[in-house]
Amino acid sequence: MQLQAILTTMFQVILPISLPVLGGVLLRLYQKLETKPLLTLYLYVLSPSLIFNTLTKAELSFGDVYQTVAFSLLNLLVLWALAKVLAKLLRLEAPEAAGLTLISTFTNSVNYGLPLVLLAFGQLGLDKASIYVISQMVIVNTIGVYFAARSQFSVKDAIRSVFKLPAIYAAALAFIVRWAGLALPSGLDAGIVMLANAYSPIALSILGAQMVNVGHQGTAVQGTNRTFWTGLAVRMLLSPLAAFLVLLVLRIEGTLFSVLMILASMPVAVNAVVLAERFDASPRTVSRCILWTTLGSFIILPVWIVAVR
Q: What is the dihedral of CA 252, 147, 272, 268, to 10 degrees?
């Protein structure tokens, strides 16, 4: 019965997601698709539209916001500590240790996680996921930079990078609209909804093209195998267990429990390789983990979805 549920989830959730991903892969391989213009569209138009549309209409309570932020921070600390301990036990060099930390702590919750949650848990799930995604954007652009390059870390630059994120302003505007009890004109609301609906296929196509890019980077230099296998084990096995324990400690239940559990079990964030390359935090190892955790997630995530439903 469980096997049937897992196979059903694969067809209902993973198959729809895999089609635009495959489209992005094929476009990159055979049409040399450049993702930079799409990333600009995604970052400055589609992502803010989705965040604004979701937050203005989401069924959220203060408890949801508090529990989500608490989970984001506590889960991050647990994974950081785990990566630190493993790096010491394996006696990894500083660049490899920094790469392992990025692999362990940052998940692809935005361009992969949001479409997945929407298909698996519906609009209510997307509502719950929106706060987590905003918190992850802030964390990646602050603590993520610190993890990648502590010696080059600047609090001023990190704060500045957060305020360059359009989604942050979209979230702030959405909270103002909700607090003031404002209603958008129907034409404007319809336009924002149209942009928000375009988010998933574009984001997933970008993911497919990025997988080709990181795949090529990963095969150029094999990197440190023990760091790769350790990162793979942490992201695919230990991080879901850590998330489960943190959720129990915080006494999070219901749909929020399911959504946070899945988002915390996502593959390595593609942005991790950007930080790894910029600060020489074992980018080859990070890129290999991005590719293989993403491929593995198509099989593992349906199991977790069935388990937490």
A: -40
Contact by Cβ (8 Å): 268, 289: yes
Smallest CA-to-CA distance from 109 within 158, 61, 144 is with: 144
Instruction: Check if the beta carbon of residue 159 is closer than 8 Å to that of residue 142.
Output: yes
Among the listed residues 221, 213, 297, the one whose alpha carbon sits nearest the alpha carbon of residue 262: 297
Q: What single DSSP character describes residue 107?
A: B
Asked if residues 205 and 27 have their Cβ atoms less than 8 Å apart, the reply is yes
- Please give the model's pTM, rounded to 2 decimal places: 0.85
pLDDT digits 0-9 by tens, 234-285: 999 999 999 999 999 999 999 999 999 999 999 998 777 777 777 677 888 8
What whole-number distance in Å separates Cα of residue 73 and Cα of residue 183? 33
Q: At what angle do helices 283-308 and 2-9 cross, to 10 degrees?
A: 120
- Cα gap 269→79, rounded to integer Å: 14
Do 43 and 111 touch, CB atoms closer than 8 A?
Answer: no
Task: Give me the phi and psi of 107, to 5 degrees please.
Answer: -110, 160
- Strand ranges (E), 30-93: none
- Residues ≥6 apart with Cβ < 8 Å to 278: 148, 149
Task: Give which of 301, 279, 291 is closest to 145, Cα–Cα.
Answer: 279
Are 213 and 28 in contact by the 8 Å Cβ rule? The answer is yes
Block residue for tokens 């450049």: 34
Q: Exposed/middle/buried for 258, CB within 10 Å: 0-12, 13-18, 19+?
A: buried
Task: Evaluate whether 309 touches 258 at the Cβ level (below 8 Å).
Answer: yes
Read off the pLDDT of residues 70-126 as tens digits, 9 standing for 90 and up: 999 999 999 999 999 999 998 888 888 888 988 998 888 888 888 999 899 998 898
